[in-house]
Design brief:
The structure is a single chain. The chain is mainly α. The chain has one domain (8-214). The protein is 75% helix and 4% strand. The protein contains 8 helices and 2 strands. The chain has a two-stranded parallel sheet with strand order 1-2. The longest helix is centred in the C-terminal third of the chain and has 32 residues, at 175-206. It comes from Pseudonocardia halophobica.
Length: 224
């Protein structure tokens, strides 16, 4: 008889719950500050735009502190970097220097991902917690730890390519065109990275006899 390998089945939340969990930190830390900047920039000027973006991020952190909720690592990172950007923007009055910083941040993130590969939990694993709450049985698995170390190389490459392309757009386009082109290009590149990561993730788990099921676990039927 053929030998069947036992499979450990791990349940993840339904798709809707996963999308809400992943979309909230992205919306809170990136899309809303960017939208606020553009609205205030076009109606009240450059200074109002950068102050509005920073104010939103400060409000998002303050609300979580008051309600004693966990502050996502991505929100901490983006807010600290946004403080630096705002200081430079107000000091110089230069939109080019203001947007140069998030472009340079791509290279910084790539470096951080590479530097933390040797840690027990690389930076990418901590950031992943903000977007998908994996069960402990999965995060502590040796294959899972190895996966995050290896996929950190993929995301370092994603940030490097994104940094080079956005730098080229920043040097040749107006603020409005830069926001439109760089945002569309960056999210397209990130979407490709997510797709490759999910494919790699599934293959890594399958090699260890671990299966994933998305949705609420079905109750076991009783016989008799």
């Amino acid at each position: 008889m053929p030998e069947h390998r036992m499979t450990t089945l791990i349940h993840l939340p339904p798709i809707g719950s996963l999308l809400r969990h992943a979309g909230r930190p992205l919306l809170e830390s990136t899309l809303i500050p960017l939208a606020l900047f553009w609205i205030l920039f076009t109606h009240a000027g450059f200074d109002a735009g950068i102050i509005g973006a920073l104010s939103w991020s400060a409000l998002a952190i303050g609300r979580r502190v008051v309600t004693r909720r966990k502050i996502p690592a991505i929100l901490w990172l983006t807010t600290v970097l946004l403080v630096v950007r705002t200081v430079v923007g107000l000091w110089t009055g230069s939109a080019f220097l203001y947007f140069l910083q998030p472009t340079v941040q791509n290279f910084v993130f790539a470096g951080l991902l590479l530097v933390t590969i040797g840690l027990e939990r690389p930076l990418l694993a901590k950031l992943a917690d903000d977007f998908c709450a994996f069960p402990d049985a999965l995060t502590q698995h040796p294959r899972m730890k190895s996966f995050f170390k290896k996929v950190s190389l993929l995301w370092a490459a994603v940030f490097l390519v994104n940094g080079v392309t956005t730098l080229a757009v920043l040097a040749t386009q107006t603020v409005g065109n830069f926001l439109m082109v760089s945002t569309a290009g960056s999210y397209s590149l990130v979407a490709v990275g997510i797709g490759l990561s999910l494919w790699w993730f599934q293959r890594s788990l399958a090699g260890e006899g671990i299966g994933l099921r998305i949705g609420v676990p079905q109750p076991k039927l009783r016989v008799g």
